[in-house]
From TrEMBL:
It comes from Amycolatopsis ultiminotia. Pfam families: E1_dh. This is Pyruvate dehydrogenase (Acetyl-transferring) E1 component subunit alpha. Keywords: Oxidoreductase, Pyruvate, Thiamine pyrophosphate. Residues 22-313 form the Dehydrogenase E1 component domain. Its cofactor is thiamine diphosphate.
Amino acid sequence: MTTTTTTSSRPVPDMVATYRLMALARAFEEQLGAIFAEGKLGGWFHSCIGHEATGAAAAALLRETDHLVPYHRSRVSILGKGMPVSALALEIMGRATAPSRGRAGEAHINYAPARIYGTTGVLGANIPIAAGVAYGAQLRGLDEVVVCGFGEGTTNRGAFHEALNMAAIWDLPVVYICENNLYAEFSPSHEQMRGADVADRAAGYGIPGVVVDGNDPDAVYATLSEAIGRARGGGGPTLVEAKTYRLQGHYEGDPQSYRDKAEVAEWAQRDPVPAYRRRLSERSVPEDELTRIDTDVADEVRAALSAALAAPAAGREEIFGEVYAERTTA
């Protein structure tokens, strides 16, 4: 297991694009949370606030022909891979005009045009799916890489170990990204695993395991650049553990009685979005340009969510259509 830290040498325009995606994702989460609080969004809402850096870095490295197999806090990489904000809003709201006709909801997003294969009903079930997609690309001799996201709690499930073993022995072109936010639902990670780092588990499968500051987009970019390059070149999978923190509860409305308020406050000081904004200022990006980005993404999200609220809700025809075969008579 290795630990990666870095100071950015990325071109400033690329860094600005990464910040725009992070700001877009943050605006989406904040405005969606407000809509949920108003009772206009049914079901659950699991906020991704605090996870923006890792997903934005991954999205910056993925080609159109690459594949993303996300999990329920992967919305920033989903947006970065190419799902429009408007489509994501329609899907989460369960609207008939959504790409999946409102079936996906918040936790099962997929978007085939951008090669995003949806999160699953059982946490961790996406990990072997990623291995399968990578195997398909390998069999066809394609220059494609699969990136798969999940949380640290999921790495205690059998699917994680089975899939990593298979990916390792077949040298599959897949990069597994564990976004370790220290809590699996309401349980701290130290109560679920003996080791301090999920990345240490990679050694059991003979593949690289890397720990990176998941709140630093440039450090994550450097780490994933190497891992994706290795996968694309036939070097097999990598397990990347991005240490981060969810600044909201497990779900919207979570009382968070299991977390120390001082701990939350400490991590809030490391919030990746304002931290990266400060880094760009230090790289001489004008304040008015950053402010314009903040305003533009907020407006884009507001328009998308307003349109989704006004769109027709998915009905029985949309929810059950194209699911069951039509009964035929002999």
